[in-house]
Design brief:
It is built from 8 helices and 7 strands, in the order E-H-E-H-E-H-E-H-E-H-E-H-E-H-H. With 259 residues, it is of the alpha/beta class. The radius of gyration is 18 Å and the shape is globular. It starts with 6 loop residues before the first strand and ends in a 14-residue tail after the last helix. It binds NADP nicotinamide-adenine-dinucleotide phosphate.
Length: 259
């Protein structure tokens, strides 16, 4: 992909992976615009990274997404790349029932419905561009579920499948569909998680450089590091893969009280 002609919107760009992607891409593309819910977080990022444009938007709120789309159309009509990165990660025990069903619905809204809504809004504009791209950020957990986060893993598996259909349908168009499946990465999202055996927390900046290289080389599905192991595990040891990656969960039950 030619990055130099891209203007990029990254959802959830105010911390972690999204911020690392925004900083790395801002050296390669025409412009990067980030969004998030917290105005304070966005302003702090802007103070340290004046090259980034910021816009407040809760991607799970359809009116906010409508406003975001209108602002982009008015102020950035040359936008030609969308990175669906915003996400939340919640721990839910079916036994303890530590969440309301509304909280689970909210997680689905943010992690699954929002990328679909954003694609629905931006795709018609992108179809008229000379070249455009959409990136969905899923997870290695799209391939094998971490059972303490069942809703999260289901949304990522769903988004992985949706991305494949989208790519297949649009294969003869000017819009390329990418997927980044990060492994465990050291970000505010995973702050409370220990490094599980065999799954060390990767560095967000390193992931960003793998991402930029992958985009340049048209790598449509990126499964760096442990994500590629999870993919292989699921493929060749499907029956055992779920129990294998959930072996150490008893030591992490404190996480149920953290989300
Ligand atoms: N970290 C990992 O190990 C890991 C592994 C695999 C996949 N991922 C995926 O990578 C993506 C980024 O994760 P991260 O680790 O960088 O998390 P993070 O540090 O918690 O950052 C999440 C970002 O999303 C924003 N956000 C959350 N809900 C939002 C909403 N409703 N509307 C708009 N923005 C929202 C947050 O800002 P506000 O809170 O201000 O809204 C923040 O900018 C997620 O999709 C996650 O599932 C992460």
């Amino acid at each position: 992909m030619n990055l130099s002609n891209k203007k990029v919107l990254i959802t959830g760009g105010s911390s972690g992976i999204g911020l690392a992607f925004a900083k790395a891409l801002s050296k390669e593309v025409k412009k990067v615009i980030i969004c998030g819910r917290s105005e304070e977080k966005l302003n702090n990022v802007k103070a340290e990274n004046p090259q980034l444009d910021i816009i407040r938007c809760d991607v799970s709120d359809r009116n906010d997404v409508e406003r975001l789309h209108q602002t982009m159309t008015d102020q950035h009509p040359d936008l030609n790349m969308l990175i669906n990165n915003a996400g939340v990660f919640q721990f839910y025990s079916f036994e303890k029932r530590n969440h309301t069903f509304e909280a689970l619905e909210k997680e689905i809204e943010i992690d699954f419905v929002a990328p679909m809504r954003l694609i629905d809004k931006f795709l018609p504009d992108f179809m008229s561009k000379e070249e455009a791209a959409i990136v969905n950020v899923t997870s290695g957990l799209a391939f094998v579920p971490f059972s303490m986060a069942p809703v999260y893993c289901a949304t990522k598996a769903g988004l992985h499948s949706y991305t494949e259909s989208l790519r297949e349908q649009l294969k003869n168009t000017n819009v390329s569909i990418y997927e980044m499946c990060p492994p465990l990465v050291d970000t505010p999202m995973t702050e409370k998680m220990p490094e599980a055996k065999g799954f060390k927390k990767e560095n967000a900046e390193e992931l960003a450089s793998i991402f930029v290289k992958g985009l340049r080389n048209n790598k449509l599905e990126m499964r760096p590091k442990a994500s590629s192991q999870l993919f292989t595990l699921r493929r060749f040891m499907s029956g055992k893969s779920v129990s294998m990656i959930n072996k150490g969960n008893a030591d992490m039950e404190y996480l149920y009280n953290e989300s």
